[in-house]
TrEMBL record:
<feature type="signal peptide">
    <location>
        <begin position="1"/>
        <end position="19"/>
    </location>
</feature>
<dbReference type="Pfam" id="PF04314">
    <property type="entry name" value="PCuAC"/>
</dbReference>
<protein>
    <submittedName>
        <fullName>Copper chaperone PCu(A)C</fullName>
    </submittedName>
</protein>
<dbReference type="InterPro" id="IPR007410">
    <property type="entry name" value="LpqE-like"/>
</dbReference>
<keyword id="KW-0732">Signal</keyword>
<dbReference type="InterPro" id="IPR058248">
    <property type="entry name" value="Lxx211020-like"/>
</dbReference>
<dbReference type="InterPro" id="IPR036182">
    <property type="entry name" value="PCuAC_sf"/>
</dbReference>
Length: 170
């Protein structure tokens, strides 16, 4: 039993030691993940209505079946866009969530809709609005590209590519 606990502790320590912030430096000169982070840094013009920037998801830890997705969404029209659903084949459920403070503690809830104002921007980011992938079917690996379909209240669908990024300290 002691060996098992020690092995788990060492594995977690090694995982933490390997995690670092990829936004502070260039990876173009090394590893396969660098080549696959291109989409994350790109602006995706989904159509003449929506632009997406920095679309990414967190890699999963072995045995953990949840992850989160983040991006900046820009509405290029004179009407607000209300997103009411998110879908992805990588998870059993994909939902739009919001984190907030309740009784001096962070809490998280699914939201019924997320409004992107006319000619405005909404950012999905840690500790705020984000996508929640629950029941992740296979591990999300750094460099992997995943498709998420965002659905508006009028039925319009927006396919977004998210790059899976290595775990970092948040």
């Amino acid at each position: 039993m002691k060996k098992t606990v020690l092995s788990i502790a060492l594995a977690l320590a090694a995982f933490q030691a390997s995690a670092h912030d990829h936004s502070t430096h260039d990876h173009s000169g090394h590893d396969a993940t660098a080549a696959n982070t291109k989409t994350y840094h790109e602006v995706q013009s989904i159509n003449d209505v929506l632009t997406v920037e920095n679309a990414h998801a967190k890699a999963t830890i072995p045995g953990v079946k949840v992850s989160a997705g983040y991006m900046k969404l820009t509405n290029k029209t004179d009407e607000p866009i209300r997103l009411v659903e998110a879908k992805s084949s990588v998870a059993e459920h994909t939902e739009i969530h919001r984190m907030f403070m309740r009784d001096s503690q962070m809490a998280m809830r699914k939201v019924d809709s997320l409004e992107i104002p006319a000619n405005g921007t909404v950012e999905l980011k840690p500790k705020d609005y984000h996508l929640m992938f629950m029941g992740v079917k296979d591990a999300l690996e750094p460099g992997q590209e995943i498709k998420v379909t965002l659905v508006a209240d009028n039925g319009e669908k927006f396919d977004v590519q998210l790059t899976v990024m290595p775990m970092t300290k948040y």
